[in-house]
User: Which sequence fits this backbone?
């Protein structure tokens, strides 16, 4: 194994409270070590550069059935952005939904080393894993969609919380999943017959349960199972004016379950759930209302879902929402419902600066990130590719770090949106330390990944080095330099190996796939009940539903002991 | 000799599906694929008996196969051949820039085969078409 | 005797996964749950008369036995020296082999195309234009109260589709239609016993007149339970199962589909008949479609191969999309081979495109009509080919097959296919799903495992292993070429 010494960089390691201190980082056998000596040690001169843990992305649609249908739908997206093969890398295509090889390389080139795919239909889990296997360099994990699963709805509506927990434990194991994902809970089951739920207290058709009960139930299940991440929630009414009230209710509904002041719920791509107004004409930002709540509570984490002005491809498990988006845009539309479990939809979309709604959405994401005081509570994402492709992260970092960059964009957006935006009233500019929280440390912490997101001894040696000198450069005044540095990492180190140098891939390796292996006492009993239900509910055999560990190219199970 | 203008469709049949699983060189495959289903009245009009040889011609070629009385009539003017090398001697290769040839709805003519014309087994058909064996 | 359960059936896109095989002395001796095709395959695949059991190479015009080493070297040489090689087939092998094939195509700068280009290729082109409202088959089993097959004869091509996923299956919200069909059958054939009628219904040579023309059942519009409608240019066995059969004139599907779209949008049709179907009947059918709770349209190559091709599918996709403003409606192509969907899937995630991918520029490029197998062959552009898990000599139009055979041709196949008989190198492989493992995708995109239930004959390699060996040899050749150039 390579032994590395990264010398004299400005180190940003928020988990270990290191803020730009000039120091060396030593690497051996893929891990961070105290120190290292000897002739075989490869030295990297990082003086004048920033050294951070490898980037972590808590929510990015990079793999699986829906992403692939998105790729299928959009040859026009690929023609304009191609990657020829090199001696080190496979060929591929972009733009908003890159092919798998290209996805891995592009993340690595920006210094990101771990990405979570947030929406795996359990029935198609094998597909997600096949794509993750073909996504090089980065580590991965994926969240099974469980909020509309019939067995979850049935056990929760009958108050059988332990059985629900045993079932969820079984699903995580069967699908090699990492966290409990809820998308428009209850709404997707309703969408099976072309309907939806209208708010958190609406009853799900054919099932005697409300979204509130699903969210609370799965939150309790999450606690019983001791999962590393919280429940990961895409709210009801996403993308609709006035939805912020429902979002607040969703966060409030689990408040009482808190007993150790730790996060209980992650509201993902919050920008899409922070809309005020009654219709698209009166639509406006509710970022301040969400931020006020978050600033007063500690049981919620968020990610941004920041809009970038670009052509992109929207894709979520929220089938009814995607149908609305099809009606709004008139663009081509894919719908893909999955029996007994979930749904999905895809619509190409162009966010335009000249549109009042789109420009306001752009503003909402940044308002959330700047008004929420604690950077550990709001993480940087674009909900790739929904609000924009992940390659826009350097641009978003520059908006967060530089008021000047924001002002420049403000001049070019829709006039009405500009006049209503809260951004001109906000002076805050993220420091490099805060950026390190929003893009790696905070993400790893929210995910409960102990060996990621920091550079302490024993951590995985996933490291990004950016050619940006915080002593010599006035960062706030030079957003272009920020963008350039984060677009092409000077070095990306993955598991102690140099994979990117000067923004180019110099070595391609296979990343690991993390999943949670829950040991639950009741799981065996449940499996028997499940086998009986299975034939009734599914069109595949029980045995063929299970994803065996050998289907994962590099399996990295995390052992968890449950209370059930 | 009497000829009749017809529309040629091709596709899968359960016998073709089973025949191919016995092996492409098997008798089962040959018997299930080197055939042409014709409407009963059309066969009568041409004086062709069920199981006799029939000649199918299109602008792309012609082929001798066994005539089979269709049990799912009446469909005057429509003939049906299962997928396989025999139909492809007469199929329309035009793709209209889609990649897909026209395997269905081909203009064709049918007539009784002469006594000298026989249904070629697979290896003879390949030899005749490609000069290899 | 050991019984292997939950075996997936490596034949059609229905991809049943409940097959039970009895294995005796490394041979399948009994098959349960499979259709006639499945049974024929599991019981006959090992017949040595129809199998390639040794690598073969053509010498002086004749195929003769050779060693693996020579066969692989020869294959690599053919591919490495070709300027525009074509790699075709893929739909009847596992995803792992397809993945190796894409890597090989990239390495040699060739074109990789799968059989969808001559099957549902037009459907895919159309999805790229219009989108698609679809779902997995279980949604239909549980929810669909209206099932339509158009240009598709599931009885013949996907024999268990009706019983496993659609009209004749029990769902959570919809019961099976089987009893209604059998009671009608009893009425027609005068058989008293239900059991006897059921058996008859499933026999190939058994035929009853379908309900068609002016016999449109008045109850169909009010019926709450599952309804089955079949639309086709000819009367098929499946048409006889239907509550109503619509016979469309050949090559007129497009007119009929667009007329239905007009009716869905409340436009008047000022003609008496469209494509041979009386407008009065058409209006009733459309009312059934609008009035259902969950409708599905399955379409077969009857739509993709006839006049209009992808434009027929445009109309069908748009029709089902429009119906979602009134109710829930989905549509699904009846994919033929058991892993044609997987061939598309792997190709999409690795290259961005589902088939007809050209690597001659060093990156993936896609333009069916230009980069599709039949077009490349008809224009005589490729100068070598590798064919795997398909039989283009049997299934391509004559001119395309002739140009394929005239250039160096490598075939990877367990069977003596027509293409294998015409090849210059034959690489005998194992039967995936019987003798080798892998992953394949059902027609609705559900991935399932292919099982290894018996040991393969000695000396045979899996598709993936053969491709990996060719790839290694090609790289070796290219390295030595670079060295000698330098």
Assistant:
């Amino acid at each position: 194994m390579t032994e590395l010494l990264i010398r004299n960089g400005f180190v940003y390691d928020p988990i270990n409270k290191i803020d730009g201190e000039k120091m060396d980082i030593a690497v051996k056998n893929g891990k961070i070590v105290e120190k290292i000596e000897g002739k075989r040690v490869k030295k990297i001169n990082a003086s004048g550069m920033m050294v951070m843990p490898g980037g972590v992305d808590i929510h990015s649609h990079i793999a699986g059935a829906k992403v692939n249908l998105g790729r299928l739908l959009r040859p026009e997206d690929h023609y304009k952005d191609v990657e020829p093969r090199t001696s080190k890398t496979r060929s591929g295509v972009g733009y908003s939904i890159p092919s798998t090889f290209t996805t891995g390389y592009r993340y690595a080139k920006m210094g990101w080393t771990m990405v979570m795919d947030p929406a795996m239909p359990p029935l198609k889990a094998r597909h997600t894993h096949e794509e993750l296997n073909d996504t090089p360099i980065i580590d991965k994990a994926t969240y099974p969609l469980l909020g509309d699963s019939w067995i979850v709805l049935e056990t929760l509506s009958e108050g059988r919380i332990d059985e629900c927990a045993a079932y969820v434990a079984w699903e995580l194991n069967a699908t090699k999943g990492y966290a409990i994902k809820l998308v428009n809970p209850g709404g997707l089951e309703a969408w099976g017959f072309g309907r939806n739920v209208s708010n958190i207290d609406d009853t799900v058709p054919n099932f005697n349960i409300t979204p509130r009960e699903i969210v609370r139930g799965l939150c309790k299940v999450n606690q019983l199972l001791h999962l590393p991440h919280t429940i990961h929630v895409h709210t009801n009414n996403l993308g609709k004016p006035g939805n912020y009230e429902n979002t607040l209710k969703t966060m409030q509904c689990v408040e009482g379950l808190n007993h150790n002041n730790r996060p209980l719920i992650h509201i993902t791509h919050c920008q899409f759930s922070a809309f005020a107004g009654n219709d698209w004409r009166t639509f406006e930002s509710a970022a301040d209302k969400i931020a006020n709540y978050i600033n007063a509570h500690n049981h919620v984490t968020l990610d941004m879902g920041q809009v970038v002005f670009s052509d992109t491809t929207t894709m979520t498990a929220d089938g009814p929402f995607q149908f609305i988006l099809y009606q709004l845009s008139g663009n081509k539309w894919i719908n893909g419902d999955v029996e007994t479990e979930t749904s999905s939809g895809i619509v190409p979309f162009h966010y335009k600066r000249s549109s009042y709604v789109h420009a306001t959405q752009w503003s909402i994401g940044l308002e959330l990130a700047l008004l929420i005081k604690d950077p550990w509570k709001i993480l940087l994402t674009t909900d790739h590719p929904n609000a924009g492709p992940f390659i826009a992260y350097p641009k978003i970092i520059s908006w967060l770090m530089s008021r000047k960059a924001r002002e420049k964009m403000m001049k070019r957006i829709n006039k009405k949106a500009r006049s209503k935006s809260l951004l001109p009233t906000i002076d805050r500019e993220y420091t490099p330390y805060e950026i390190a929280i929003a893009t790696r440390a905070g993400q790893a912490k929210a995910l409960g990944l102990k060996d990621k997101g920091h550079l302490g001894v024993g951590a995985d040696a996933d490291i990004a080095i950016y050619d940006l000198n915080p002593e010599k450069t006035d960062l706030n005044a030079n957003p272009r330099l920020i963008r350039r540095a984060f677009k092409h990492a000077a070095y990306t180190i993955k598991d102690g190996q140099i994979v990117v140098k000067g923004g180019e891939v110099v070595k391609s390796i296979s990343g690991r796939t993390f999943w949670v292996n829950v040991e639950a006492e009741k799981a065996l009993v449940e499996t028997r009940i499940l086998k009986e239900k299975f034939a009734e509910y599914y069109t595949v055999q029980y045995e063929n539903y299970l994803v065996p560990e050998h289907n994962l190219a590099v399996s990295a199970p995390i052992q968890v002991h449950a209370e059930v | 000799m009497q000829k009749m203008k017809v529309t040629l469709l091709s596709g899968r049949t359960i016998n073709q599906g089973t025949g191919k699983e016995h092996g492409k060189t098997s008798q089962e495959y040959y018997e299930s694929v080197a055939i042409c289903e014709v409407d009963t009245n059309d066969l009568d009009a041409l004086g062709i008996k069920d199981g006799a040889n029939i000649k199918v011609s299109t602008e792309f070629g012609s082929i001798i196969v066994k005539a089979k009385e269709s049990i799912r009539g009446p469909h005057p003017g429509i003939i049906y051949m299962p997928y396989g090398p025999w139909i492809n001697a007469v199929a329309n290769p035009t793709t209209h820039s889609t990649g897909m040839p026209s395997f269905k709805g081909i203009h064709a003519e049918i007539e009784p085969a002469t006594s000298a014309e026989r249904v070629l087994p697979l290896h003879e058909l390949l030899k005749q078409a490609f000069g290899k064996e | 005797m050991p019984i292997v359960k939950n075996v997936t059936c490596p034949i059609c896109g229905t991809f049943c996964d409940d097959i039970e095989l009895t294995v005796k002395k490394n041979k399948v001796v009994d098959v349960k749950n499979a259709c006639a095709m499945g049974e024929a395959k599991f019981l006959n695949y090992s017949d040595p008369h129809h199998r390639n059991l040794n690598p073969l190479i053509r010498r002086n015009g004749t195929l003769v036995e050779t060693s693996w080493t020579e066969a692989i070297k020869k294959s690599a040489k053919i591919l490495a020296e070709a300027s525009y090689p074509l790699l075709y087939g893929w739909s009847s092998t596992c995803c792992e082999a397809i993945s190796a094939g894409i890597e090989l195509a990239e390495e040699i700068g060739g074109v990789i195309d799968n059989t969808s280009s001559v099957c549902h290729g037009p459907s895919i082109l159309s999805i790229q234009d219009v989108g698609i409202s679809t779902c997995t088959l279980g949604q239909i089993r549980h929810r669909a109260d209206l099932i339509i097959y158009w240009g598709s004869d599931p009885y013949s091509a996907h024999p268990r589709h009706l019983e496993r996923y659609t009209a004749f299956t029990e769902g959570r919200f919809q019961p099976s239609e089987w009893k209604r069909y059998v009671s009608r059958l009893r009425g027609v054939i005068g058989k008293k016993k239900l059991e006897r009628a059921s058996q008859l219904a499933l026999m190939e040579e058994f035929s009853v007149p379908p309900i068609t023309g002016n016999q449109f059942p008045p109850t169909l519009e009010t019926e709450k339970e599952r309804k089955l409608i079949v639309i086709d240019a000819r009367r098929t066995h499946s048409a006889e199962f239907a509550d109503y059969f619509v016979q469309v004139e050949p090559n007129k599907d497009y007119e009929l589909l667009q007329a239905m779209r007009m009716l869905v949008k409340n436009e008047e049709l000022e003609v008496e008949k469209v494509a041979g179907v009386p407008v009065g009947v058409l209006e009733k059918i459309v009312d059934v479609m609008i009035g259902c709770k969950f409708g599905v349209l399955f379409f077969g190559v009857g739509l993709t191969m006839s006049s209009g091709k992808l434009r027929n599918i445009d109309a069908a996709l748009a029709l089902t999309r429009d119906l979602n403003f009134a109710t829930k409606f989905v549509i699904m192509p009846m994919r033929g081979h058991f892993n044609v969907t997987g061939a598309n899937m792997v190709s999409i995630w690795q290259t961005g495109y589902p088939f007809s991918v050209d690597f001659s520029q060093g990156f993936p490029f896609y333009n069916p009509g230009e980069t599709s197998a039949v077009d490349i062959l008809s224009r005589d552009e490729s100068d070598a080919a590798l064919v795997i898990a398909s039989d283009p000599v049997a299934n391509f139009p004559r001119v395309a097959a002739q140009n394929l055979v005239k250039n160096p041709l490598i075939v990877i196949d367990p069977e003596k296919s027509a293409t294998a008989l015409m090849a210059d190198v034959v690489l005998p492989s194992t039967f995936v799903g019987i003798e080798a493992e892998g992953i394949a995708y059902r027609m609705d995109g559900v991935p399932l495992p292919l099982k290894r239930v018996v040991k393969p004959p000695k000396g045979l390699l899996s598709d993936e292993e053969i491709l990996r060996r060719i790839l290694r040899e090609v790289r070796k050749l290219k390295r030595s070429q670079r060295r000698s150039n330098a």
In short: The two ends of chain B are 34 Å apart (CA to CA). Residues 4-130 of chain B form a domain with the Barwin-like endoglucanases fold (CATH 2.40.40.20). Helices of chain B lie at 14-22, 27-33, 40-46, 122-130. Residues 5 and 109 of chain B are 5 Å apart (CA to CA).
